Amino acid sequence: MVDLKSQYDKIKPEIDRNIQEVIDSTAFIKGGKVVDFQKNLENYLGIKHVIPVGNGTDALQIALMALGLKAGDEVITPTFTFIATAEVVALLGLTPVVVDVDFDTFNISVESIKRAITPRTKAIVPVHLFGQNADMEAILALAKEHNLFVIEDACQSIGSVYTFKNGETAQSGCMGDVGCTSFFPSKNLGCYGDGGAIFTNNDELAQKMRVIANHGMQVRYYHDTVGVNSRLDSIQAAVLDVKLKYLNDYIAARQRAAAFYDNAFRNNEKLIIPSRNPNSTHVFHQYTLKLKDVDRKTLIEKLQERGIPAMIYYPVPLHLQKAYRDERYKNGDFPIAERLCACVLSLPMHTELDAEQLNYIVESLLSEL
User: Fold this and answer.
1) Closest CA to 236 of 29, 12, 14
2) Which residues pair with 53 in a beta bridge?
3) Would you give the DSSP letter of residue 233?
4) Domains plus CATH for the chain?
5) pLDDT digits (tens, 9 = 90+) for 8-24
6) N or C: which end of the chain has fewer CB within 10 A?
7) Could you give the C-alpha distances from 179 to 26, 80, 124, 172, 198, in angstroms and in order?
8) What are the tens digits of pLDDT across the range 174-222?
9) CB 90: neighbour CB atoms within 10 A?
10) How many whole angstroms separate alpha carbon 271 and alpha carbon 319?
11) C-alpha 196: how far from its chain's center?
12) Closest listed residue to residue 59, CA positions, set 163, 168, 147, 182
């Protein structure tokens, strides 16, 4: 699904040099490489504050902690997403309220959000799934109307650009009160371990999140609030600072691979290619098809026999996960998400896919339908 070795080989001298500089400096925590990467990412995103943290899940948790929400406050998020989005809500004693998604784009449904808002609702966490932004203009308007926070889960969408009706543009994760991303190795901008970051233009909120991420501490050994220990280490920052320079190239490579897949599958009645939100670029963290009248399990097995990985993101929606079973929800409540879980299939998608590999994947898949 991801070829990190070939990607590394192309930038090996730069990566090795940056890592060696960290080792030589022995500044492994909060070293200069972290500061450099933070500033460079702020410039790339056009955002005032980037707070590097340990991983994308920590980013979401710290963002929610900084907003001053209280036990029982409701947070709306899609049911078709990775578990971390709801996990942090539950861990903080907040109430996750899941809603359905749009069948075409996989992203959170604005109409479903509207129906889910109650007097206890305090925040919306839209997930920019698979690499394109949700309908942020409508979500932000809804949040403003109801005085709600917006925390963007941009863990799969860094580098995606959203265009508003007035022509203004914004980077994914930089439109709400807070944005969160992951630098897990397989991400479009991935490190060689765990890592994540939080984005905001709000000075006060940025300071709160920095303090929370540092054990609730501004002055050493004086703790002003309950916090956590979450930081991006210097070696990971050294890797990310190199790869950030190539992020737009990586995105273009993924988009070329997606276009190849599109052209091959567009007219096949058993395959539905990924839809594009007209207001958003798509950076293709995943290339996800919808299957029609296809035995998915058998297809995956046949592809694996040919050496082609294929994954299901995601096989079970949040409201049907054992850990998140809730008397408010039952099978059938979110038919679009449940339908997607039954029919989606993601193909290999990364920066190193070449024409020979793409042809082999396409020909193999079509021959097994």
Assistant:
1) 29
2) 196
3) B
4) 4-244 (3.40.640.10), 247-368 (3.90.1150.10)
5) 999 999 999 999 999 99
6) N
7) 31, 19, 12, 8, 6
8) 999 999 999 999 999 999 999 999 999 999 999 999 999 999 999 999 9
9) 14
10) 27
11) 10
12) 182
